[in-house]
Design a protein that fits this description.
With 148 residues, this protein is mainly alpha-helical. The protein has 7 helices and 2 strands.
Length: 148
């Protein structure tokens, strides 16, 4: 991916700016790929993230704060994401009768089954996105990311 080519500029972009632009372009390309993979499931990448977090709880309920803290993309509309997953039957929400502010969220069996299907599609998409990188290049890339 040549940044100058994509931006259709003849001038050389300074290295720091070029690097940030490159990150943004790669991020957009990855987000678009992931959104396209999840589209047949009628689910957003953020909803997918919530389902994965809930599955990782291994049966222990999560609250909205836990979900928000563990989200890849931090956002203030976690409640809305959960509401959409409830409508789909992928999660359920239990409100504590004595403290209505305490809400527990669990993934349902339907949610687990659908998530397994999404996992396969996501795994294939990840392989496709990263197909031009070797294992050692992926390790090095992750080491470089850790420095940021």
């Amino acid at each position: 991916m040549n940044v100058e080519e994509i931006l259709q500029t003849e001038s050389q972009i300074p290295l720091e700016s070029r690097t940030i632009i490159h990150f943004l372009l790669v991020n957009n390309k990855i987000n678009e790929s992931i959104s396209n993979v999840l589209k047949p499931f009628d689910i957003s990448p953020q909803q997918f993230n919530v389902l994965r977090i809930l599955r990782g709880q291994n049966g222990t309920p999560a609250n909205l704060s836990t979900l928000n803290d563990r989200m890849i993309t931090k956002m203030s509309n976690t409640t809305r994401l959960v509401d959409k997953l409830i409508i789909k039957g992928y999660v359920d929400r239990i409100t504590c009768p004595s403290n209505r502010r305490k809400v527990e969220i669990n993934i349902t069996e339907t949610g687990k089954k659908e998530l397994k299907k999404m996992d396969i599609a996501m795994s294939n998409a990840e392989k496709k996105i990263l197909k031009n990188l070797s294992k050692s290049e992926l390790k090095e890339l992750n080491n470089l990311f850790n420095k940021l």
